[in-house]
Amino acid sequence: MNEDTLKGKWKQLEGKIKEQWGKLTDDDFKVAEGNSEYLAGKVQERYGVARDEAERQVKDFRDRIDRNY
């Protein structure tokens, strides 16, 4: 899933993202609006993981979504 597709489906995916990363706030989602780099930064911040781990989690999430859509 490329960045444009993620942005286009953001509202549809928001619930699944909230299931994956429940510590993210509604404000985080509003600002992210499909920006996977911002999302990875928030995952890093809220969950206390390294940047590369947060990026891996977001990539894995995007890959899972790709398989289901």
UniProtKB/TrEMBL annotation:
UniProt xrefs under Gene3D superfamilies: YjbJ (1.10.1470.10)
Domain CsbD-like: 4-56
Listed InterPro entries: CsbD, UPF0337_stress_rsp, YjbJ, YjbJ_sf
Family affiliation: Belongs to the UPF0337 (CsbD) family.
Descriptive protein name: CsbD family protein
